[in-house]
Amino acid sequence: MSNSDPTSFLNRCRRSRSFLIGGVMTGFLLLCAAISLFWTPGSAYDIVIPDRFLPPSAEHWLGTDQFGRDIVSMLMTGTQNSIAVAVVAVSIGLIIGVSLGLLAAAKRGWTEEFIMRISDFSFAFPAILSAIMITAILGPGGVNSILAIGLYNIPVFARLTRGSANAIWAREFVLAARAAGKGKFRITFEHILPNVLSIIIVQATILFAIAILAEAALSYLGLGTQPPHPSWGRMLNEAQSLIFLDPWQAVFPGLAIATAVFGLNLLGDGLRDVLDPRLSRKR
Amino acid sequence: MTLLDVQDLTITLATAEGPARAVRDLSFSLERGETLGIVGESGCGKSMTALALMSLLPERSNTEGKILLESEDLLRFSEKDLCNIRGNRMAMIFQEPMTSLNPVHTIGHQVMEPLRLHKGLDKDAAHAEALRLLDRVGIPNPKARIRNYPHQLSGGQRQRVMIALALSCGPDILIADEPTTALDVTIQDQILELIQNLVSEDGMALILISHDLGVISENTDKVLVMYGGSAVETGRTDKIFGELTHPYTLGLFAAMPKLGMGRNARLATIPGVVPDLMNLPAGCTFFDRCPLASDHCRDASPPVHVLNPDHAVACHNIDDARGKKSEELYL
Asked: Are A179 and B103 in contact (CB < 8 Å)?
């Protein structure tokens, strides 16, 4: 299909407003994280007591906190942390969950029952609550919060993949593939996975947003990233007690979290339109 | 050696309401180069028979009897051995060309797959062979088409691709399950002719499944008329169409539209519906719809009468049925 075709992939991307806006917002997030790796406007770590509680100015774009640390620098460095946690956590859920889902759909019978009942069981616990439980057992910290969020993602992916994969297994081209002598393993990777991939990608984007939110929540509770590393959730927590003294401090981390989550959700929504044109027409 | 010998094939499907006997005591054989037609209305077990030959029945089903491919019983094969048979020695063409190709792969990729799987060809060799196959099934400009996705092809072209796929490894037996039902009449004719030519060129055996007596009479050497999961009339195509005997076969024939019928003429129908496979009658399955049925038919399964070596009919009232015209029985 040529690029001038109005239904081509690139053109569909261009026409989807949520894809464009979400993409720009997510891109901005990634850019901040990338820049902060080697440059920040001020210092996210240096404590300069005389400069504390400064309002936004040319020198400190978003002001300073109660220790005189530059808020914009802390936010930028915190982006790294949020993204790293979300990427690893979603990858854990994606790899294990999708494999389990594909296995359940291919094997059926007891294997499927076993995998699905376990994931049902894990759904019975509220996600944040189980994450808190896991970090409480393993101890607070960045790695453990990644594990906690990742574990929660596994059944989400497993259930979604198994459901979509079952629908593909019932399709006629799978029967045709079996008639051509392909085994279940081969069919899973050649026919099932490519056909459920778009659904999985969309789900991954949305879970990415949820993971950022979960990491902020865990840090807010003091169970996530530990000081001195800056984290959006902990910044929010520290600003809370000073809200009447210095309202600026609470606004910016909140805005950062909201922007990241909103952008990723828009991107996920847009991706669904782009990857599955049939769905967007119905809506 | 007989290429394919099916003996007393019985298929029982597990359903929510209990076991359903989709096929009962079906026997037939097929030699190299022969064409067998299986005809019957929806739900008579045609497709189930085809899937059983490929060992592709749903998991919740039970198959009894023997399916001998050159004296080896396929029902005793392991799944791994079956994978080596499917697509390699036995291939199948499906009814719906629109949905039988994977939408996310190019047709070239899909035609090359079995070649690489069964023949162990490398990428270049498989590509060249795929080009040759697409050309052979009459896809114009195969060099460009090989990069197309299924949605870019018409229904007839997709069915040609399916045929190329089925023929790719040079199977001994080709099973075509209503290969033209979803296509226009003009395309239907082209596709059947294509299958016919390819089959005779390669000397393979063909099993053609259809509900269309016209298609069967023109394209087959032998016929198996199925009703309610069992064979009611079998034999050589010319013998059967020379003397249609079983009341069901006569009914199928009567139901065909004929030239010059007139605008307002009504098509003849066989009254009633196909039997419930869960509660098959004790006697003849066609008993409740048969114009010749007698009390005897209700209680005992019909015996098989061999009219001549190439024509057999399973009916109690064979003497009544013989010599009857289809119009006399169905109006």
From this structure: no
What range defines the domain where residue B66 resides?
4-89+171-260+268-329
User: Do the domain assignments include residue B157?
Assistant: no
d(CA B146, CA B132): 11
Number of domains in chain B: 1
CB of A201 within 8 Å of any CB in chain B?
no
Using a CB-CB cut-off of 8 Å, the residues of chain A touching B47 are none
pTM: 0.80
Nearest-Cα residue of chain B relative to residue A275: B104
- Domain membership of residue B57 (yes or no) is yes
Q: Could you tell me which of A40, A81, A104, A38 has the C-alpha nearest to residue A260?
A: A81
The CATH number of the domain holding residue B83 is 3.40.50.300
How far does Cα A272 stand from its chain's mean position? 16
CB contact under 8 A, A195 and B118: no
Token pair in block for residue A198: 């778009």
**Are A180 and B91 inside 8 Å of each other by CB?**
yes
Domain range list for chain A: 82-282
Q: What distance, in Å, lies between the first and last C-alpha atoms of chain B? A: 46
Candidates B100, B109, B158: best to mutate against A (most CBs of A within 10 A) is B100
CA distance A237 to B195: 74
DSSP B100-127: SS-TTS-HHHHHHHHHHHHS---HHHHH
ipTM given for this complex: 0.82
Going by DSSP bridges, is the β-strand pair B205-210/B35-39 parallel, antiparallel, or unpaired? parallel
Instruction: List the single residue in A with minimal CA-CA distance to B84.
Output: A181
pLDDT in tens, A28-48: 888 888 888 887 777 777 777
Residues A207-257: pLDDT tens digits? 988 888 888 888 888 887 777 788 888 888 888 888 787 777 888 888 888
For A210, the token pair is 């949820």
CA distances from B43 to B18, B22, B224, B290 (A): 17, 8, 15, 18
Please check whether residue B70 lies inside any domain of the structure: yes
Cβ atoms of B49 and B22 closer than 8 Å: no
CATH number for A82-282 (one of 1.10.3720.10, 1.20.1070.10, 3.30.450.20, 3.40.50.720): it is 1.10.3720.10
**The pair of three-digit structure tokens given for residue B205, joined into one six-digit string:** 């055996």
Are A194 and B100 within 8 A, CB to CB? no
Interface check A173 vs B, CB under 8 A: yes
Probe site for chain A from B53, B55, B59, B102 (most A CB atoms < 10 A): B102
Q: Which helix (H) or strand (E) holds B35?
A: strand B35-39
The answer to whether residue B151 sits within a structural domain is no
Alpha carbons A27 and B173: distance in angstroms, whole number: 57
**Chain B residues contacting A via beta carbons under 8 Å:** 54, 56, 59, 79-80, 83-88, 91-92, 94, 96, 99-105, 113-114, 117-118, 152, 162, 165-166
